[in-house]
Amino acid sequence: MTSQLNDLLKPLADAVKECGKNAPWCSGTWLVSPADLKLYFDCGTGTRSIQFANPATFGANHEDVLDETYRKAGKMDLEHFAINLNPERVGLALEVKLRLLGLDADERNIRLEPYKLNVYESTGKGSFFKAHKDTPRGEKMFGSLVVVLPTAHEGGGLLLRHDGSEMVFDSGKEFAVGKPPGAIAFVAFYSDVEHEVQQVVSGHRVTITYNLYFADEREALVSAPAALTPAVNQFSVSLKNILANPEFFSKGGLLGFGLKHQYPLSSDKRGNFDLKNLLSCLKGEDAVILRACKEHGLTASLKIIYDANDGWLVMCDRPVVGLSYQVDDLVGDLANDFGGVCIWVPPLDAEYYQEQAARAWRKTVNQFIAYGNEAELAYLYGQVSLIVEIGIPGQRQDPSTIVPFDVTKDLVGAYKPTDVPNPSDLTADENGGDEIEDDA
Ligand SMILES: O=C(O)CCC(=O)C(=O)O
Ligand SMILES: [Fe+2]
Predict the structure, then answer these.
(1) What are the residue boundaries of the Fe2OG dioxygenase domain, all occurrences included (predicted)?
(2) CA dist 365 to 56, 302, 435, Å?
(3) Ligand 2 mean position to 129 CA, how many Å?
(4) Is the CB–ligand 1 distance for residue 134 below 6 Å?
(5) Which three-class secondary structure string do you get for the chain?
(6) Nearest atom in ligand 1 to 148's CA
(7) What is the pLDDT of residue 359?
(8) What atom of ligand 1 comes closest to residue 118's alpha carbon?
(9) Which ipTM value was assigned to this complex?
């Protein structure tokens, strides 16, 4: 990126960083009625129940019940248990929405689905849950809520990690400080947060996990307006300023923001992926950027940026599937068969490229195909970018004149024409320029 453009983009990049300070998790304790803490569960041929009211008394009264029921299993699926607790009714769902989505909570409705009951005990080696990420059940699932029921325990801290930061929530300590009967502990986090449960060294740790989904208006159970945070405002104002600057993209161009979160993506029956659906599922600062762009009338879409090796970057509208053969010219194939547009040519290669000189890329492209079979859910890693069009929508830029940016590493980059485009390269796209014209 040129330094002048860098200078122009700096406030925007700073504002994005500010938005990113919102943690991808939240935790605390929540007071509910002791009646909410009655748990029913299948046991042999019948159903039994436990009242979780007071952490201190739980172990003594119920150890045997838990032992015989859970010692082997450690977890129970939804069809085998039920609890009176309703996170929506007691306000916990709203709390989680406001604190986790924070930046754009007011625009979102969420839905919770109970998922699993986990029991960790201290006998033997002590139970734990090794580091993992929860498998998203569909594109709308954005996170998990763990409710820790009030039972005395030591150890069993829930360790969370994301993007270099880490935190531990020690529910045992929370209960040890004498919470009133009916206090539960909770932790909620985005699906791309890695988490693990440390070994329980005394007592029992009992949790119920919930899947968190973005919901549309009709299914919404939780919704409330929240004030815009300063970070969100800062980004929107920086964007407005940069757009008002006549030196910025006077001939139009594209801005790219590398996504900060991972998202599950499902394919249709034919194995094709559509990035469009993901736009409504963005989280955290990704969602803030999209929202600000819309506010300022910009067209934004998700593109996937392939590092076609040797530093060539090719931008495609959709993940490329079905390329499992050896190709000679990956950049060419991406451009010709998948509508890819080359957005960065390494300086050493630029000369050849301009002369249309063929360069052989003999690469096995399997490694670029992160996505498998029909209906398979896969995570996208940092390669997907939110691309925002400035100026003429759908305008095809001359790839040899672009200003480079590295969307796979930098959060903000720019794709900028330095010449007046050739009219024959312009695409008439009245729908906001989601398409990028194929190389003819
Ligand atoms: O019990 C917990 O704290 C976490 C459980 C968990 O991570 C899971 O069930 O996937
Ligand atoms: Fe988990």
Answers:
(1) 111-214
(2) 58, 22, 24
(3) 8
(4) yes
(5) CCHHHHHHHHHHHHHHHHHCCCCCEEEEEEECCHHHHEEEEEECCEEEEEECCCHHHHHHHHHHHHHHHHCCCCEEEHHHEEECCCCCCCCHHHHHHHHHHHHHHHHCEEEEEEEEEEEEECCCCCCCEEEECCCCCCCCEEEEEEEEECCCEEECCEEEEECCEEEEECHHHHHHCCCCCCEEEEEEEECCCEEEECCEEEEEEEEEEEEEEEECCCCCCECCCCCCCHHHHHHHHHHHHHHHCCCCCCCCEEEEEECCCCCEECECCCCCECHHHHHHHCCHHHHHHHHHHHHCCCEEEEEEEEECCCCCEEEECCCCCCCCCEECCHHHHHHHHCCCEEEECCHHHHHHHHCCCCCCCCEEHHHHCCCCCCCCCEECCCCEEEEEEECCCCECCCHHHCCCCCCCCCCEEEECCCCCCCHHHECCCCCCCCCCCCCC
(6) 3
(7) 31
(8) 1
(9) 0.99
Ligand 2: centre distance to CA 132 (Å): 6
| 38 has pLDDT over 60 | yes
Whole-number Å distance, alpha carbon 288 to ligand 1 midpoint, is 28
Atom of ligand 1 nearest to the CA of 156: 3
Locate the ligand 1 atom nearest the alpha carbon of residue 205 and give its number: 1
Structure tokens at 81: 């248990």
How is the chain split into domains, by residue range? 3-20+229-425, 25-215
Which position has the higher pLDDT, 157 or 273? 157
Residue 118 has pLDDT above 90, yes or no: yes
Give the atom of ligand 1 at the shortest distance from the alpha carbon of 207. Answer: 1
Q: Which ligand is nearest to the CA of 158?
A: 1
Mean pLDDT of 408-433: 33
Closest ligand to residue 78's CA: 1
Between residues 78 and 268, which one has the greater pLDDT? 78
**Ligand 1 centroid from CA 69, angstroms:** 19
- Domain spanning 25-215 has what CATH number? 2.60.120
Q: Is 129 in the pocket of ligand 1 (CB under 6 A)?
A: yes
Q: Is 158 in the pocket of ligand 1 (CB under 6 A)?
A: yes
**Cα of 152 from ligand 2 centre, angstroms:** 21
Instruction: Say yes or no: CB of residue 170 within 6 Å of ligand 1.
Output: no
What does the pLDDT read at residue 319? 72
